[in-house]
Amino acid sequence: MTLFNYKNILVCVDGEQFSYDTFNQACTFALEQDAKLYITTIVDPKPYASMVRFDSKIMQRVEQRASESLQAYKQSAEEKGIADAETILEVGTPKVRITRHIVPDYNIDLIMAGETRGRKPERVMTGSISKGIAKRATCDVILVKSSGEMVAKV
Fold first, then answer.
1. Which of 25, 57, 131, 150 has the smallest C-beta neighbourhood within 10 Å, fewest atoms?
2. Prediction pTM value
3. Over 60: is that where the pLDDT of 131 sits?
């Protein structure tokens, strides 16, 4: 039983297996709280910038795959009994788009994200996306470790 009463929960997902664990925990929270569940993927265009010169439609395909993935997550949420689920697909820097745009635009009061994302060299250069979200967020944040342990920033 949680002490907080969340109304709008945002879960950050991508194509990694780790996202499904975080997603499942977010669904449980949404059901317990009778909250609206927002499922988001932010497509970061930086990794594709050099490829655009050779394939001008690569971003369209990446966004299409992300959209299809989000719809699968939404369907899964509905199958778990969540009637009020919405998907959000945006392009940009994930920690910025989430904290500066999605949180205020959708009145998010809890963000759930997987703690480790990306390959180790990327994390060294850019920092963990989820830790960046936790640092910048104006709402509560729960980071889900790969072990399933939850670390809260309230």
1. 57
2. 0.85
3. yes
User: Could you report the per-residue pLDDT of 14-57, keeping only the tens digit for each?
Assistant: 765 557 889 999 999 999 999 999 999 998 887 766 776 676 78
Task: Kindly state the tokens that stand for 53.
Answer: 């010169």
Q: 8-153 is classed in which CATH architecture? A: 3-Layer(aba) Sandwich (3.40)
- Alpha-carbon distance of 145 to 136, in angstroms, equals 19
Distance CA 7, CA 3 (A): 13
DSSP annotation string for the chain: --SS--SEEEEE--SSHHHHHHHHHHHHHHHHHT-EEEEEEEE-SGGGTTGGGT-TTHHHHHHHHHHHHHHHHHHHHHHTT-S-EEEEEEES-HHHIIIIIIHHHTT--EEEEES--S-HHHHHHH--HHHHHHHH-SSEEEEEPTTS-EEEE-
Domain extent listing, the chain: 8-153
